[in-house]
Design goal:
alpha+beta; 47% strand; 6-stranded antiparallel β-sheet; 2 helices
């Protein structure tokens, strides 16, 4: 859900009142896996896929998700590839700082449970 909101906020930031969705595809499989993609007339593209892993106790479990989004701003196309799992949201893009070394210093979420 956070990812969908993130994509919506990015879309709003680069909103074009005349932009329209030109391609949208979405699928949910019986096992809970899903995949969706969309593209707009102003060059925004996004895709996401994931699967739910139910926990042993009701209302527990985890989603493992991955995707990408791209947009053009001032003639430059920015692309972010990301994953999201029990350890958080992990974006990677040429224009983003690299925080991969941070885990060595702060650990993983599971270290604090």
């Amino acid at each position: 859900m956070r990812t969908v909101l993130l994509i919506c906020f990015i879309s709003l930031a680069f909103a074009d009142e005349y932009a329209r969705i030109v391609n949208y595809q979405s699928r949910i499989d019986e096992d809970g896996a899903y995949k969706s993609t969309f593209e707009t007339t102003n060059g925004i593209k996004a895709s996401e896929e994931g699967i739910s892993y139910p926990g042993n106790v009701p209302n527990t479990g985890n989603y493992v998700r991955s995707g990408s989004y791209s947009y053009e701003w001032e003639g430059v196309t920015y692309t972010v590839n990301w994953t999201a799992d029990e350890n958080g949201f992990h974006p990677v893009g040429d224009h983003l700082p690299d925080f991969s070394h941070t885990r060595q210093h702060i650990g993983y979420v599971s270290d604090y449970e």
